[in-house]
Amino acid sequence: MDVRASSTVLDTVVFVLLVGVAVGILAGVDVRETAGGDRVAEETADVLATSTTELTYTRTAQVQSASVLGGEETETVSVARTARGTHAQLLAAAAVSTPSLAAESLVGTGETLRTAVRPATRRILPTRTANVQVGVAWYPYPNATLHSSFTVGDSPPRDADVSVTTARVASGLPNVSAEARRAVQAGGYDGVATVLARAVVDGLFPPAETRSALYSEGPDRALTAHRYRTASELLGSDADEALGPRSVAAANRRLADALADRLRADLRHRYDSPDDAARAVRAHQVRLVVRTWEP
Which of 61, 93, 128, 129 has the fewest beta carbons closer than 10 A? Predict the structure, then answer.
């Protein structure tokens, strides 16, 4: 069975991310560094921050029909989505809504937004005057096992004279850097990992919007349940067993506890002390790297 619908419930991930981005760093792109003498890279970053667009895409998943209709057969569920914002906002949302953990997708949906945002971004790049590539990367701390990254445009040749502008864009997730530093006092690495995990899970499954989706009928509820199930299986959690309109907070806690276990091990491996780990937290930022070179 193929169940299709235009969503009547807000897309929980994109809604929260775009609202967060809108009140974050983006009055323009916050440019951190520029290399090379060509201003095309910096100007392109400014265009990404100020030009707006609207994207329509479809989220699709294979789900057990029991999650929708009470049966046991597998069915395809599709929901049409619309996302509006600046190109930088949409690039950030596409990154944070599709995180991977050790090379496996955490929630199993979201790639379609990334697929839609690539050609929309390409259309505004100044490709008549220069070759341009935009790199998008979200890491809650440098080289984290949990991350998301992709590029728009081809990579420059090894011998090209490349100009680079690096910018930080609000991810839509809360800035928990100060909270992570406070958590070191009582919890060490575990405190930092717990703060990060809760922020990520509540960003992917915001309680109010997720509860509304679970109270709805059909595709929205099925897609939300599918995303919980995918994350639970990857993390070895039973969060999906606790899932229901009245138990979103409990399900999120179970997911966050399981994710924190994975992040704690990674933080111990990468940082000499919990303080160093806490200082490295930057879940609230997405990094854009604009590279330009002559045709």
Answer: 128
